[in-house]
Amino acid sequence: MGGGADAQRGIADRARLGARCAYALCRPPGHHAYADMAGGGTYLNNAAIAAEHLRQRFARVAVLDLDVHHGNGTQDIFWRRADVFFVSLHRDPVDYHPFFAGHADERGEGEGEGFTLNLPLPAGTGDADYLRQLWPALERIDRFAPQALVVSLGLDAHESDPAAGLRLTEAGFAGMGRQVASLGLPTVLVQEGGYNPAVVGASLVAFLDAWR
Question: Which of 3, 14, 154, 195 gives 22 a disulfide partner, CB atoms 3.0 to 4.6 angstroms apart?
């Protein structure tokens, strides 16, 4: 649990030192923040800070963004790099924030070409369809062969969240957790969105149960 750059490095250290999973409860969220610019109410890109810290020990790190919104800031930070593979599942930005990023044809540039994967989902996607899309994303991560994983964990994909983009339930978050945990990687979970206090806690517990 923590916030700020030092806290993110501390959480990442737990994975560096062999913890199966470490969770950072961050407010505000961070994945819309760029290296040199705030965005979407975010100021520090917590997932990117954690990934950079993990890179001090591991040659390859993957960042998996599971927020209902695309992590445009995280994508931009690693856009031209081949050592960090960025993967995102999110509501299709054709008519949703951030409309200017997160489209399927965005793949990175220069050395980073092919190291960005966006899987935009139709509005209202529920548990079964979401989990079907998550498997190929995890297969791509597995082929990249990272030594550690950072997950931008957005709980705003819940059907009761005011973000009103996707329609996941606690069962869907449980399935997500099991799939992600099956990679068997040292994993840092970084809290992103989630704006309905009535369901955030249960969704998080459902996801975390996979690491018990």
Answer: 14
Read off the pTM.
0.93
* Residue-wise pLDDT tens digits, 6-37: 655 666 776 665 678 999 998 889 999 999 99
Indicate which residues carry an active-site annotation.
32
Measured in whole angstroms, the distance separating CA 40 from the mean position of its chain's CA atoms is 16
Residue by residue, DSSP assigns 103-165 as -TT----GGGTTSEEEEEE-TT-BHHHHHHHHHHHHHHHHHH--SEEEEEE--TTBTTSTT-S
Q: Are 8 and 49 in contact (CB under 8 A)?
A: yes
Give me the helices (H) in the chain, please: 5-16, 46-54, 72-77, 127-144, 170-181, 197-208
pLDDT tens digits along 174-207: 999 999 999 999 999 999 999 999 999 999 999 9
Ordered structural domains, the chain, with CATH: 5-211 (3.40.800.20)
